[in-house]
Write a structure and sequence with these properties.
The protein has 437 residues and is an alpha/beta fold. The chain has 12 helices and 21 strands. The structure holds ligand LLP.
Length: 437
């Protein structure tokens, strides 16, 4: 259907009764069952993106790894799905590790990132198992060396390099430039010093190098530059210490559209460019090809997710604006307020006729709680359902209990059936941490 392209799950359709259907399941029926706000994930769309990455990685003539960046959205159901497909997982905290362990995600496929992992988090990883720890600052080398000193096997580590590459994305999402809290700058010599320190630590085994440039990137130029710097660095370390990386990762970051007129990235072409850049740069320097790990978050799951809200208060201010309030907002999707992210939406319970321009706002006590500004919609009534596409990544993951909000339920849909991935929070959940309640 022309109406539903790219930003909507691939199974999205409008039923003859006007109901929006995803994964063969009617959204009004889901709202009746689970309440709103509700987040719906379409498994067919997730699988399509996994397959796209897999197929395009096949052009790489050595081992490849698809590492899901769990910070985009994590729950046990999604992790079981990814574990069964052989994906790896990037985690950045003890909490994310706990979810991974609860999902029985194979520990050897866990990659632990973070610019300030605590000793407690690292002990947890040591105790329950971890595949790779990505070192992000020099002092981590000694700490890991101590924590793993009596381990039966050395700990596999990668060093996160800061390649000094600028990216064209929101300032909060840039990580590859020199002025960043992430990674060890190649330019200042910090990366080389850290590599030397790792090689001096018998409890650690250096397996490779990592960079992550930023998130929501729409061109491959930064990847090409970073891969070249990575290759130069690998060559310098090979000359200096005789070590060659077994694995390298140019991180994640490929952008996705949320509006019909947003730019989009052809994943197949983008991955092939990365593959070609790595193969060429390594060949040119006479280095053996490492395994190539890609670390996408958003581009695996954003399109699969749809947020469903119920319309409540409608406030028409003549000559100014029509405010349409929904029963969620910035507590489940902070992205418009934080990054100026733009979304679109459609009615999910009926088709409607005609058009008015409305502004969709949340129910929280901030004037910045605006989900969508100036959205053309058919005349809308209290009780209508509103579906917002491209909300699978970094919405729920950044959700809060602001104003005592209950975080929404999450369902996965496929072939006409739904599975509850996360139930809606309750007042008891909110009070559980308060011993005086
Ligand atoms: N690897 C590392 C080390 C990362 O820090 C990130 C994202 C990724 C991979 C995955 O990037 P992706 O493929 O999802 O772009 N909250 C922001 C996005 C922050 C991204 C943080 N790191 C947003 O809502 O736009």
């Amino acid at each position: 259907m022309a109406e539903f392209q790219e930003i909507w799950p691939i199974t999205t359709a409008r039923h003859v009764d006007g109901h929006l259907v995803i994964g063969g399941v009617s959204l009004p029926a889901l709202a009746a069952e689970h309440g709103t706000p509700l987040y719906i994930f379409d498994l067919a769309t997730i699988d399509m993106h996994v397959q796209r990455y897999r197929d395009s990685l096949r052009s790489y003539p050595a081992e490849t790894r698809l590492v899901y960046a769990g910070k985009a959205f994590l729950c046990v159901g999604l992790l079981r799905h990814f574990a069964a497909q052989g994906l790896w997982l990037d985690v950045v905290s003890g909490g994310e590790l706990a979810i991974a362990y609860a999902a029985s995600f194979p520990a050897e496929r866990l990659v632990f990132h973070g610019n300030n992992k605590t000793e407690e988090e690292l002990r947890f990883a040591r105790q329950r198992g971890i595949g790779i720890v990505v070192i992000d600052h020099q002092a981590e080398v000694e700490l890991l060396g101590q924590l793993w000193a009596d381990a039966p096997q050395p700990l596999s580590v990668m060093v996160r390099l800061n390649p000094g590459v600028e990216t064209d994305t929101h300032a909060y999402r840039r990580t590859g430039q020199l002025d960043s809290k992430f990674g060890l700058p190649i330019a200042t010599g910090a990366a080389a010093q850290t590599v030397a320190a790792v090689l001096d630590q018998p409890a650690l085994r250096l397996v490779g190098y990592h960079v992550h440039l930023g998130s929501q990137l729409f061109t491959s130029e930064p990847y090409r530059v970073a891969i070249e710097r990575l290759a130069d660095f690998a060559q310098a370390m090979a000359a200096q210490h005789g070590v060659v990386p077994n694995v390298i990762s140019p991180g994640g970051g490929i952008g996705v559209p949320a509006m019909p007129d947003d730019p989009s990235v052809d994943i197949t072409a983008a991955v092939r460019e990365i593959v070609r850049a790595v193969a060429e740069n390594w060949k040119r320097r006479g280095l053996p090809l490492p395994a190539l790990a890609l670390e996408p978050g958003r581009s695996l799951i954003a399109q699969a997710g749809v947020a469903l809200y119920r319309v409540g208060a409608i406030k028409q201010i003549p000559g100014v604006r029509c405010y349409v309030s929904v029963d969620g907002g910035m507590a489940d999707n902070i992205r418009p307020a934080l990054y100026g992210a733009r979304y679109t939406a459609t009615l999910a319970n009926r088709e409607g006729e005609g058009e008015q321009i409305v502004t969709i706002v949340g129910k929280y006590c901030e004037s910045g709680d605006v989900l969508i500004r100036d959205l053309p919609l058919p005349p809308v009534k209290p009780g209508d359902l509103l579906a917002v596409p491209s909300t699978g990544a970094y919405c729920l993951a950044m959700a809060s209990n602001y104003n005592g909000a209950l975080r929404p339920a999450v369902v996965a849909v496929q072939d006409g059936a739904w599975v509850l991935w996360q139930r809606r929070e309750t007042f008891d959940d909110i009070l559980r941490r308060d011993p005086l309640a």
